[in-house]
Amino acid sequence: MSILFGIFGLLIGSFINVLIYRLPLNKNIVFPRSACPHCHAIIPWYFNIPVLSFLFLRGKCAYCRSRISLQYPLVELINGIVYYLLAKNVTMLSFELLPIILKALVFSLLVAHVVVDLRHQLLPDGINIFLAIFLFTLSLLNGEWLRGLYGMILGLILPLIVTYLFYLVKGVVGLGGGDIKLFGALGLFLGPLGVIQNIFVSCLLGSVVGIVLILTKTLKRDKPIPFGPFIILVAITQIYFPSHFQRAMAAIF
Ligand SMILES: [Zn+2]
Question: Ligand 1 centre from 121 Cα, in Å?
C-alpha cells in the first residue's frame, strides 16, 4: 500500500513541477503537453517518468542536450518519499485514507509554494485556494471546522496588522498579499493558537536568517527575501510533527 502511495507521490511531484513552471507564467496547467523550455520539443511519456528519466538522460534534454534543472527530480523524490511515509501504517483501503491523501496533497502544494516563492517571490492564489479547500476539509473531518474558521480570520487579520505596524515604523511593506492569504489558508487547519505560533516563529526565523544573510554579505540590505518558505517550514512542522512542535514551543516559552 505504501509503495503504491509512494509512486502516486512521484507522479504528483511531476505534476507539481508543471505547476511550478506554468503558474507564474499564467499558462494553462493541463494543456499543452510538457515541452523542453529551451528547444520546445514535446517530451514523450518515456522521457517523462519521474526521477528515472532524469537519471537515464543524465540531466539533459534528449533533443537539445541543454541541462534539466535538478529541481525536477528533487521535487518528485521528496513527494514520493513523504507520500510513502504518510501511508506507512495504512494496511487497506478505508475511509481513514482520506485525511492521509489530503495531508499528502497539502504537502505537495506547500512544496510548490516554496519553489515558486524562491524563484519568483510569489505565492500564487491558485495554490492558496486549493490549500484552503484541503485544509478546511481536514478540519471538517476532525470536527473542528469552527476552530478552523477562527484560525483563518486571525490568520488574515493579524499579519495585516503586523504589516501595517511594520509599514508605519520602517516605511516599507513587510509581508506580501500572498503571505497573508497563506496565513489565512493555514489558519483553517492550525486554528487561532497555531496561527499565532506560526506568525511568531516564522517572523523570528525569517529575521535571524535575514540578518545572517546581510552580515555575511550574501544579501543586499534593501533586497527583500521571500518569506513564504519560513511560514511553510514552520507549518510543515505543525501539520506533520505536531507533538514535536508543541514540545519545542513548551521549551522556548
Ligand atoms: Zn531541449
Answer: 26
How far apart are the CA of 47 and the centre of ligand 1, in A?
12
Encode burial over 99-136: b for 16+ CB neighbours within 10 A, e otherwise.
ebebbbbbbbbbbbbbbbbeeeebbbeebbebbbebbb
pLDDT of residue 190: 97
What confidence category does residue 222 fall into, taking pLDDT thresholds of 50, 70 and 90? low
Q: How far is the CA of 64 from the centre of ligand 1 (A)?
A: 4
Q: What region does 71 belong to: left with phi over 0, alpha with psi -120 to 50, or beta?
A: alpha
Mean pLDDT of the chain: 91
CA of 38 to the centre of ligand 1 (A): 5
Cell 528519466: give the residue. Answer: 53
Give 253 or 85, the one with higher predicted confidence: 85
| Those residues with Cβ within 8 angstroms of residue 47's Cβ, 6 or more apart along the chain or in another chain | 53, 57, 62
- 35 C-alpha to ligand 1 centroid (Å): 8
- Centre of ligand 1 to C-alpha 216, Å, is 37
Residue 24 gets which letter from DSSP?
A: G
> What pLDDT sits at residue 31?
84
Predicted TM-score of the model (pTM): 0.92
Residue 141 has pLDDT above 90, yes or no: yes
Q: What is the 3-class SS of 51-93, one letter each residue? A: CHHHHHCCCECCCCCCECCCHHHHHHHHHHHHHHHHCCCCCCC
